[in-house]
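Contributing new records

If you add data, match the layout below exactly. Sequence lines come first and carry their own label; structure lines follow with theirs. Keep one chain per record. Anything else will be rejected by the validation script.
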Amino acid sequence: MTVIYLFAGIFLTFAALWILVPALYGLPSVPTNPDRVRAALRLADLRAGEAFFDLGCGDGRTLVIAAREFGASATGIEIGPAQCLVSAANAARSGVRSRVRVKRGDFLRADLRAADVVFVYATTRELRRLQPRLESQLRSGTRVVAVGSDFPDWEPAKTDRVNLIFVYNMPPRYKVAT
């Protein structure tokens, strides 16, 4: 019976970390549908050998798809310790551990200068907060993929309205005020 209580305690702790830590930073962990991920990476024209960054990588499914199906070198930035463990385990289980790296941290403070493609699934509020960091760190030609929301001040280079995917080329073009 003690073993059952031990496992129940571990499960509840893990579940609490999965939900609470990201929520404290303003973003709940919401997985992206794999088909939507593939559509986003195709729209961004992700190529083999490119440095791909997923901001808020959750369970790592986007990292695995980028590494396994597109041949990218994938890095995930994730604030939740439970999500970091699951992301690393999913990469290992999928056979792409050598091409996937998971860093625990706040993506609003992460070093993104090496990125060729940055993927983010966040609210407009979070994108607005992220915008100055991307503008100051990303090289010309880097692509930024936003899923679910768009950057309010930037004009997307490509859009998939069905899947709500927006691709921006750095430096971004600003929307014209009407």
